[in-house]
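Exercise (ungraded).
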Amino acid sequence: MTTAVIRRLGVGLLTLWVVSVLVFLIIHNLPGDPISVLLRQYATPETRAALEALWGLDKPLTEQYLAWLGNLLTGDFGVSISSNLPVGQILAERLPRTLLLMTGGLLLALLVAIPGGMLAASRRGSAVDHGLTTGSLVLQAQPEFWIGSLLVLTFGVTLAWFPTSGYVDLADDPVGWLRHSVMPMLTIAVVTTGLLLRTVRASMLTELQQDHILLARSNGVRPWRVIGWHAGRNAVAPTLTVVGLQVGILMSGAVITERVFGYPGMGLTLVNALISRDYPVVQSGILVFAALFIVTNTVVDVVSMWLDPRTRATLQGAR
Amino acid sequence: MSALPRRQFLTLAAGGTGAAALAGLLAACGGSGSGTQPTTSGSAATDDAAGPTVITIGNSEGDPANLDTGMQNTFANLSTVGSACHAYLLYLTADGALEGDLATGYEAESETRIRFDLREGVTFHNGRAMTAQDVVDSFERLMDPESGSPYAALLTPIDSIEVLDDLTVAFNLSQPYAPLTALCSQIPIIPIETADQQATAPVGAGPFKFEAWEQDNFMAFTRFEDYYDASFPKVDEIRFLPRGDATALRSGFQSGESSAIAGFAWPEMESLASLEGATVGTSYINGFNYISFNCRVAPFDDVRVRKAFSLALDRTLMATAENGPDAEPAHVLIAATSPYFPADLTAPFDPTEARALLDEAGIPEGFEVEALIPDLPLLRPLEPVWQSLMADVGITLNTRLLPPADYVARVFTNFEFSVGIAGDSSAPDPALFLDRYLMTDGASNHMGYSNGELDEILAAASATFDEAERTDLYHRAMEIVLEEAPIMPFIQIPVNTAVYPEAAGFTVRPNYLFEVRGAGS
């Protein structure tokens, strides 16, 4: 087990390094550069040269990459070209907001998807099953900007229950924070629920065919216990894997959701940084997202191993 | 289908009721549909004696990355920090007139020396009194090309700035430079000891004092009690909400979170105007959306082809596509509010003549060309209209919408284009736009256009303070530009605004600074 985890972490680090190279190369080879964005039609050769020297953009790409990587290894993410703020400070401020948004949205989605999926599987072929699976398909097909706009119009403009955009810090005003976060979280939840519900349903259907379920039923175990415990426990593992993979989708979704709701999280920061070609922010931001994705999936895999005795046994056998 | 057991039903019902109650509670906790930031309970000005008056402005330009308006003169900077926090030697009114601001007046002592008399009793937000030395320091900070300031290139004619006494300063110029006074409405005067903090916590002498900035969320300013004109500002606090997303901008106004918004597309005007108390309008800034050619490459190195393009361009239709049926087309690169505006010059729309010119240029069957457009909401509707107009004379436009950063790099840095649409603005003196774009060595001359006669005319116009002489020179310059068509404006850049009564007086000035000190009256 430990070997498997260490191996996964090693692969994760290697992946991160590859991501760092790719992100660096891609962003530096995109058309446009921070000086063009900053000076626009006012750029003169003198000013351009001065800014290139100031930001080290006059050095060869390899040298720039190695300098960035070297600083990164010491915990220095660099300084934002646009704002002059340390990138570490920007990440520390913005990332938790996006993580809270994603976690909240995911929890809301799971809250609906797990019981919904179990219910659909336990009533396979019934109207409830058809209703839930069709509903989940419809939800899955909705783009974030559309759901977000509908929520804004309904609950922000028409009913005026929630602010249409903006952000309040959780530490300053928890209720205010919740009021500003409900609609973005709901948006994420709506588009995530569909896939999760269908995954839970499919896993449950597989589990409900297993011998131990038939045995449990024949032993007179109550139906809710059979579904919720005997089958449900094993069905969680594949769902968790999908949740892990969903993190990547949630991150990209956060970019759109944050823009629609004017929510100043990591997604909005990355979009703005990309527009202004703020290399240090884009590079570090994407690297942190990649690290999160890798860590989440590693954790999910480890938890799945523990939850599923068959995987655990296989791994122990392999060791 | 089995019936839902009573117990499960009750559990579900309790859960549903709980969720609805939580939503209601959250809604109730926040007051009446507002509360965008912690200290603001409702964006509208509260006229009762109990609380301060606050107005919030939703800004389509989004948030600036850096609050130093001397170092980054983007619309996002100028419209927020530049409008609320800073004062300038001269003040550009919404009508385009230059009035005294920190200077009470100025005089050209000679063609190369301009003296400014400063206002007495001006205090910066940090409590220090303004002196003539602050004017020197504020300009010198931006004059050095190594500073990276976009103003550096525009300030090169300044040789030195001289302190004559505490309240008098003189600009010594290396050559006569008429546009200096217009620039003086956009260069912020700051206490130089705060230069390092301008990017994050700006200090100036404007009507509002910087209070807080949470990037991409809000920017807050409070009334500066020691502002030199006691009749301003009209409200206690002003907040700017960056709303780059069109839905967020509009819904913020519809819900009342924003007292005013600026920069929405014209099709929204009707629905916003129907909101109770709302008034909508359009301000035109001192800048243009234009079509420009790469005159270095065929077929646009041939003036006949450029002229054919110009004749095929229905400017009224282009202006309508950009900002609705009331939009006025532009024909020349001088703002209609400028005293130098040549009202008699227009670019004709004549597709028949355009086809004849293409015939004369040896391409009677027309041609196909890639046309670049920055992917901006205001410019997107132009794509099909422009294509149709050109198709009418046999020119096939393969249009490409590019992210603005890519556009700037391709067109303005690398000159990798044939023809494109773009927009730009400047402080309100024709020289600040025309010299940059049309002089052979102009910083914004991406067209590669060169005309010795035009260079001389523009240089002469910049070098004289005589209004009549400048009017004649600019008239002649515009005739040449219409004739040679390296660049074709079709509309002055419009900014649509919607305002509730609590922010009455809010508007957009021609240099894209918002009128905020008189807002809320």
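Further reading is listed at the end of the chapter. For now, observe: Residues 2-73 of chain A form one domain. Residues 217 and 223 of chain A are 7 Å apart (CA to CA).
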